[in-house]
Design a protein that fits this description.
- The chain contains 17 helices and 25 strands.
- Strands 2-1-11-10-12-13-14-15-16 form a 9-stranded mixed β-sheet, sandwiched between helices. A 7-stranded mixed β-sheet has the order 7-6-5-3-4-8-9. The chain has a 4-stranded antiparallel β-sheet with strand order 17-18-19-20.
- It has 535 residues and is α/β, with parallel strands linked by helices.
- It is 30% helix and 25% strand.
- Helix 1 packs antiparallel against helix 2, helix 11 crosses helix 12 and helix 13 packs across helix 14.
- Among the domains are: 244 residues, Rossmann fold (3-Layer(aba) Sandwich), CATH 3.40.50; 100 residues, GMP Synthetase, Chain A, domain 3 (2-Layer Sandwich).
- The longest helix has 17 residues.
- It starts with 12 loop residues before the first helix and ends with a helix.
- The structure holds adenosine monophosphate (AMP).
Length: 535
């Protein structure tokens, strides 16, 4: 077949930055400084400082292919480094500061970070790990340190702002193959060492374009987006890139992630859409409820990372008129791979039925395909009932882990470790993680479903379910509850509540009341911690 006769230009992140500067140069970026105040500038300013940073990185001796780590909040300096590092042909490795220090040392060394950028908050952490990261030739503090004493003892220390002050703002972004590595993110690694996912420029640019579609984030200059999801968690679901493609005002919350600070920021900056894991929204809504507040500008919220409880969807929609966009994705899928939405017909259903639909993880976005298979790898029917392992493939799905010697793919598909159903309409629902599903007497109980029902009880703030060994049934569910402040709730009452809503054999025998549930680095409930203590 003859080739078409069109230009072939590589899809590069520097192209995204140049587009944003040229088309949306005056669109604002608002960023919370690590020490508290808000900083504001424009896309054009961000592009200029990214060029300065590209010079500064070269002045540190870095060259194309080198890896630059970051241990940082969502702020404008971190944003500049996203573009400067990848735009120069280097690899941006965002590190999760909430990893255990041993894991942090492991990923910095495994990735071969040559320079690490860090926020002053993390100076004690850097001090603790620096000696064990011998390959790092410069530690660069982003912005002002609270005091020089806080930084004392950090080897090869540089100040980001001083480096930039000295640098020219004229820089020609290099052109290279779009399959070049742009960014690196490690999985949270609850078992074994974290695994690195090395994103290409092409994957990120395609994902960013797709994320701007109306069915996803709908980003345009009419929107103001607040990614609460950290820039160290799958590149903040690529919002730092997609906002620049679409031209949306970008609001970066820095270290202040409590409900009160987020609410205040949303209102003062006119945020129309935000994105984060369910536990963040739980804290935000608790604040809003307690103070009888309303959202005056926020219209949509994108939620993912773990299942969005139906009770929370109901609150957002019924009480606050905020539309919930429930998405599914993983480190291995660059960002969102499926997204829930209501069809025009579903919009006229009763509220509870609409919420049932929105609790599902939805349809694939353009560029991604999914299927569900049984234990033998055979496709299972798309009937919305039969469960199996979710497999995914597409333009921005991992093919091999960084420095991995074997491919995780099975017949070209990535096995996600999630158990799901897909219905005839293509709507996917996550039922559990393979390792979380409770196998009792040969049948499966979805821990997510059970948690969802428990969360409908008005006295329940948080709920988690794990499987514990049982001599008769193999496993039985054990329910953990965090009560709402000042609520009274005893085992019998919550078990009765469940008995009215789920099959009898699903109802746990025991409930453990806790003051809080263990949360992992990205704000998800850490069932592995619960298992260690209670299994
Ligand atoms: P991570 O790579 O750390 O973001 O973890 C990815 C995993 O989070 C997925 O494999 C799912 O198990 C889980 N996950 C992500 N989004 C959702 C969602 N909307 N509902 C349920 N689980 C989710």
């Amino acid at each position: 077949m003859p080739h078409g006769m069109m230009m072939e230009l590589p899809l590069l992140l520097s192209g995204v930055l140049q587009h944003a500067e040229a088309q949306f140069g005056q669109v604002e970026v608002v960023s919370r400084e690590t020490h508290g105040p808000l900083f504001r500038y424009t896309y054009a300013d961000c592009a200029k400082r990214s060029r300065q940073l590209a010079h500064a990185l070269a002045s540190l001796g870095l060259k194309a292919g080198d890896v630059v780590g970051s241990i940082a909040w969502n702020n404008h300096r971190h944003l500049e480094s996203y573009y400067a590092v990848s735009g120069s042909g280097m690899v941006m490795h965002t590190c999760n500061p909430r990893l255990h220090p041993d894991q942090l040392i492991y990923i910095i060394n495994h990735a071969e970070d040559r320079v690490v950028l860090f926020d002053a908050t993390f100076a004690p952490l850097v001090k603790a790990i620096a000696a064990q990261c011998p390959g790092v030739m410069a530690w660069v503090c982003l912005g002002d340190a609270p005091s020089t004493a806080a930084l004392e003892g950090i080897p090869h220390l540089h100040s980001y702002d001083t480096l930039l002050d000295k640098a020219s703002d004229q820089f020609e972004w290099p052109q290279f193959d779009e399959r070049t590595a742009a960014a690196l993110c490690y999985t949270s690694g609850t078992t074994g060492n974290p695994k690195g996912v090395l994103y290409t420029h092409r994957a990120i640019v395609l994902n960013a374009i797709s994320s701007c579609l109306p069915g996803l984030l709908n980003l345009s200059p009419q929107e103001t987006i607040l990614p609460v999801v950290p820039m160290f968690h799958i590149n903040a679901w690529c919002i730092p890139y997609s906002s620049f493609v679409g031209g949306a005002k970008l609001v970066l919350p820095g270290p202040k992630l409590d409900g009160a600070s987020l609410y205040e920021l949303m209102e003062s900056e006119g945020v129309t859409i935000s994105a984060g894991v369910p536990t963040i929204w739980q804290a935000l809504l608790a604040h809003v409820e307690q103070h009888h507040l309303r959202f005056t500008t926020m219209r949509r919220t994108a939620v993912g990372g773990s299942a969005m409880p139906k009770a929370l969807i109901a609150k957002f929609m019924d009480i606050y008129q905020v539309e919930v966009r429930h998405g599914w994705g993983m480190t291995e899928t660059t960002a969102v791979a499926t997204m829930g939405a209501l069809s025009p017909q579903q919009r006229s259903l009763p509220a509870a039925a609409q919420q049932d639909h929105l609790a599902k993880q939805g349809k694939t976005v353009f560029g991604v395909s999914i299927k569900v298979v049984d234990e033998n790898g055979q496709d299972i029917p798309r009937d919305g009932q039969t469960q199996g392992e979710l497999m995914v493939r597409g333009h921005w799905i991992v093919s091999t882990y960084h420095k991995g010697d074997t491919s995780p793919l099975v017949d070209g598909w990535f096995p996600t470790g999630d158990i799901a159903t897909i219905d005839a309409d293509g709507v996917m629902q996550i039922r559990d993680r393979v390792k979380d599903v409770i196998k009792t007497g040969g049948e499966w109980i979805s821990s997510i479903d059970l948690e969802n029902v428990a969360l409908e009880h008005p006295a329940v703030a948080m709920a988690a379910v794990i499987g514990v060994e049982d001599p008769k049934w193999g496993e039985r569910p054990l329910l953990f509850i965090v009560r709402k402040p000042s609520a009274t709730l005893e085992s019998a009452e919550i078990l009765d509540f469940l008995a009215g809503k789920v099959a009898k054999w699903w109802v746990p025998e025991r409930v453990v009341f806790l003051d809080a549930l263990p949360l992992g680095g990205t704000g998800k409930i850490q069932k592995s911690e619960l298992r260690k203590v209670y299994r």
